[in-house]
Amino acid sequence: ARVGDGVDRRPQAVDGDLGTRWGSASPQNPQMSFTIRFAVPQSVRGLEMLFGEWRHDFPQRLEVRGETESG
User: Fold this and answer.
1) Alpha-carbon torsion, ordered 1, 55, 42, 65, to 10 deg
2) How far apart, in whole angstroms, are the C-alpha atoms of residue 14 and residue 22?
3) Helix residue ranges per DSSP H, the chain
4) CA–CA gap between residue 58 and residue 3 (Å, rounded)
5) pTM confidence score
6) Residue 20: what are its φ and ψ, rounded to 5°?
7) Which residues of 11-25 are buried (b: 16+ CB within 10 A; e: fewer)?
8) CB environment 34-68: b (16+ within 10 A), e (fewer)
9) CA nearest to 23, candidates 56, 46, 48
10) Residue 38 DSSP class
11) Nearest to residue 18, comparing CAs of 62, 63, 53, 67?
12) Handedness of CA 25, 53, 22, 42 (dihedral sign)
């Protein structure tokens, strides 16, 4: 994915296809984030990250947060 190319590639981060991906097109920095909001409250018991052919490109410092509907 290339930032600024006018194509929204965020859905590729969660499409289940190891042949696609979302990327920032810039070096990682602490201000970067990727937010997933569910339409209705969900129970999340785990997180699985699969990198496909991009094993070298992964979050260096991953922080996962959960919020209630009220924040």
Assistant:
1) -90
2) 9
3) none
4) 17
5) 0.63
6) -120, 165
7) ebeeeeeeeebeeee
8) eeeeeeeeeeeeeeeeeeeeeeeeeeeeeeeeeee
9) 56
10) -
11) 53
12) negative
Q: In tens digits, what is the pLDDT along the chain, a chain of 71 residues?
A: 344 566 787 888 888 888 888 877 788 888 888 888 888 888 888 888 888 787 777 788 888 888 877 76
Token output for 3: 């930032």
To which residue do tokens 């990250």 refer? 49
Chain center to CA of 52: 14
- Give the separation between CA 1 and CA 20, rounded to whole angstroms: 9
What are the tokens at 1? 């994915």
